[in-house]
Amino acid sequence: MKLLDWTSRTALVTGATGIIGSWLVKELIGKGCKVVALMKDYDQNSEFFQSKSHLTCTLVDGCLENYASIENSINQNEVNTVFHLGAQPLVNVAHRSPLPTFETNIRGTYNILEACRRLGPNLIDRVIIASSDKAYGTHSDLPYREDMELRGRHPYEVSKTCTDLLAQSYAFTYQLPLAIVRAGNVYGGGDLNWDRIVPGTIKSILKGQSPVIRSDGSFVRDYLYVKDLAKGYVRVAEELGGSFQTGEAFNFGNEHPITVIELVKLIQSVTGSIELEPKILGTATGEIKSQYLSSAKSEKLLGWNPKHSLEEGLLETVTWYRNFFNDLVRNTRFSTKSSNGQKV
Fold first, then answer.
1. Residue pair 321/206 in contact by the 8 Å Cβ criterion
2. Each residue's pLDDT tens digit, 210-246
3. Catalytic status, residue 292
4. Domain limits of the chain?
5. Which of 156, 170, 223, 292 is catalytic?
6. Where does 7-187+224-253+292-306 sit in CATH, by number?
7. pLDDT digits (tens, 9 = 90+) for 76-113
8. pTM exceeds 0.85
């Protein structure tokens, strides 16, 4: 296992307020790394702010679509490591309105890559690009392996296929020192996109409501706990230039695929709410039927494997959301009393 002195490094993290970015920032801070967060929005409910990570980071206003803000963020803060996680992450949003997704996911990626290329080897020595299992598109031969063709078809898939190919192009043409991460469905505390199955199901159950399944419940996915993925990102950065060279892609998954309805039933089990009958809508569009990954390459070259079983990760996740909603209730009561002029 290669050792990297994170205390001497400055990392730019895009998408720092997202579920993966929030936990990656915490992982980097814990290793003594200086973190620069490119911020488009300041969602105070995100784990990035809830965990107070923002107090130990350099916050930079900017968006992925603006090349100048990216280059300035890297140059002025003397960044040497880039984790590009920022994206429009929702499949259904991309399906309804593809252009903004293409702008953020595709333009945002080539802006990052070009800024790193222009600033050159005197500054940047490693770039980690977040792709997705969606980049593979539909394959009958599963699990996905890193040498499989990338062939996204629906808008979100295409945006991630393009992200992936752009990164490969910069590695091949310009020898930009980079690696690509392709993860399965990621869950954990801090995901505030309620359309996603894990946070949406937990939110419904904690409110005493039946969970809603947009598909018919038979779609197969592999669910990876966010803390395990955050460690995977760090391992990729540590081994880049060591156990592998530029342009390599790595899958990260739990390797225990289950159907959506099985996942919902498991969440009901860990929350003790098995009496709630799920509502199956069968209205999902632009979704691949079955997706799951082989993580054999990540285990072999990075020494990585998930430390949390699905049930263990869900138990921690449910605890996070219980605390989150309890805090919201307390804060609402506090605000109401204050606005009424009562003592608090």
1. yes
2. 999 989 999 999 999 999 999 999 999 999 999 899 9
3. no
4. 7-187+224-253+292-306
5. 156
6. 3.40.50.720
7. 999 999 999 999 999 989 999 999 999 999 999 999 99
8. yes
